[in-house]
Amino acid sequence: MKIINRLKIVLHLGCFLVLFSVLAQEDKINVEESAAVFLEEYSDNFQEQFFEGLKQKGIENYDKAIKYFLKCKEIDAESTVVSHELAKVYLLNKEYINAQNYALEALNKEPENLWYLYTLVTAMQSQGGTVGSLTQSMPYENIILRENLGKIYYSQKNYKGALAALEGIKKSKKQQDLYTKIEEAVKKQEEEKTSVSYTVTNTVSTTRTKTDNGVQAYKARLKGLISIKAYSIIKQVATEAIEQYPLQPYFYYTQAYALNQTKRYREAIAILEVSLDYLVDDISLANKIYKELANGYTGLNQTSRANMYLRKIKPGF
């Protein structure tokens, strides 16, 4: 039972899909696995191997994690949950072909699972390709799958790809609304391209300048709110910032910071893990994220995990 409870926490966090906050208010995306039901069907040996795989993945021992998940695969070759975990850890280990194959395997068994499709899209993009080359290898005629692909591309601001994913399917009202929203985004994007100006020394997009100014404005506002400990407002502003600029790790950090302060530790941890995916060469922000991860795990009484992230903090930044 102790193993099951711990796995409930890990699976819940691993499946919390913050990336699609752009659409969250309109469409509640259910990507959670029922950990309790899933695990009750398996032996103690399977549970031990599965949990150890998650643990090793969490501490970035990807080769060991793969070995444990493959042992689970030997016990149950049909488990989509194990296939997806293998896909994710192969992706983290930069073994993109293996990630692609296991993500495709999981998706073929559950074609309407958005999270499985997102992992497949990521694996293909990591190789410089798209899922368009795999349409013969998956149930591409599935309308929900196509809708999910449209959502993924929309969240990545790949509006033309999103339109192509939805083209030719009989749309429900919800899907038609998404299609219309994407068309409007394409139109706006084209208008912004025409407004680009260039300096004598280098080409500088006014759109890029506008984006940079917007990011800095949100950062300044959030730093001011943090200084006065306005946690509920911080969460609202950070959520708004993520919707506008979904690739900025600082906004995920501030949202998670506010959640930690209000003792919503599990949500905070999930968001912080997403922020690490977008973090590039910013040791100071990395330290802040690790500190909040440690605070979150301390709040959940998971001391070993908290200490793991405290050890990641680099002094002097």
At a glance:
It is built from 17 helices and 2 strands. It has 317 residues and is mainly alpha-helical.
Give the secondary structure arrangement, pairings included.
Layout: H1 2-14, H2 21-24, H3 35-40, H4 44-58, H5 62-75, H6 80-92, H7 96-109, H8 114-126, H9 143-155, H10 159-166, H11 173-194, E1 197-198, E2 203-204, H12 206-227, H13 231-244, H14 249-261, H15 265-277, H16 283-299, H17 303-312
Q: What would you note in describing this structure?
A:
This protein folds into 3 domains: 134 residues, Serine Threonine Protein Phosphatase 5, Tetratricopeptide repeat; 54 residues, no CATH class; 100 residues, Tetratricopeptide repeat domain (Serine Threonine Protein Phosphatase 5, Tetratricopeptide repeat, Alpha Horseshoe), CATH 1.25.40. It is 71% helix and 1% strand. The chain contains 17 helices and 2 strands. A two-stranded antiparallel ribbon has the order 1-2. A hairpin with a 4-residue loop joins strand 1 and strand 2.
